[in-house]
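Progress note, project year one: complex with zinc ion.
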Amino acid sequence: MNRSYMPMIDNGLFVLEYYLDKPYNQITINDLFDSINYFAEKIGHFIETKEFYRKVVYSTHMNSSFTQIPKGKSKETIIKEQFQELLENIGNDKECIYCSNKRVNINLNIDRKFMYGLVSQTFYNSSNNLQTVDVCPICAYLSMISILNIQKIGMPTLYISDSDDFMRSITKSNQTILDEQNNLDELFNIPSNLKSTKLIEIALLDISNIGYITQFCFQNSGQLIGEVERTIYKKDIELLKRLDNKGLLEEFMSFGLHDRLALGRSLVTDMVYCSSRLLKELEVFELKEEEKKIIEYAADTLIEIEDSNKLLKEIKLCNTQSKFNNFILNYSEKKALVKDVKHYDILTGYNWAKYRDYINMHILIQKNKEAV
Ligand SMILES: [Zn+2]
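Model obtained:
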């Protein structure tokens, strides 16, 4: 098997790897058949005995065997039958849009009950232009067993990363919890407002060479379909580890900057007042060396010619590019805020709001130093 980098399919693959104790690229279709009984029993048991699973399957695999009420059969049996139906119907009609293998069976309906992101059967029945979905039964099977890697952070949540080591680590951690804990709700049912916090926590795991980690929160039930994605990249992970080593992570998070980082937003805003140590780290992270020098020079010059409280009030009013431009020009008449006139264009150009916020921060820190 190969990775598809789709959250549900890849998490199923790593769950499979974990239980078969065999690297995913050596797993064969026969291994999949051999795993049916094991996973049907395990998942059936969890759905019947664990409150967490009994509920979560309604938001991940609605209308599948996971949510069907068995009639005269055990839960395990109906899951087993559905798994078997999938794997016994591997076709060769078309290439799968996710794994690229020619395993699609156009006579088998693969829809939303198996996987997030697919249209529901009822929808494409009524809409003639969507006849079928080219997803293969193997991807559908993997997507079903990804349930064992699901946590809930407000919504059902899976992590996906380019790093196999990361995927193995998170899978092992989840499976250990599953096998050892009775009260899953404590560890797997996490309040929605901790999305970024949890992402930052796992980014600090001791795993090297991670290109990205995406936290994929999704809803796949009834009429409700939706998703929230937060991604942190290699550079972000390095920043977090640096902050952690220097004892600045707590301060960073206290301003909600981890949330901004995870959502790809600029870190410093006029709402933030952090320590000069943290500011230095943020500048190194967000600004080029030249930008840093321009900002420092402008801020230092402003403080020389005007009272910092007055400056801060005025900067607060610079909520548009032209207002900020005027602010810079007015003070430039008193004394040049830049060493090179070309720097005016940089300061007031495309990234003006970011520079405004950094100048603001420098003045705040300077003012704080004076107060001490
Ligand atoms: Zn596939």
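The pocket of zinc ion is lined by residues 96, 98-99, 101, 103, 135-136, 138-139 (CB under 6 Å).
The first strand starts at residue 151 and ends at 153.
No further modelling is planned for this target in the current period.
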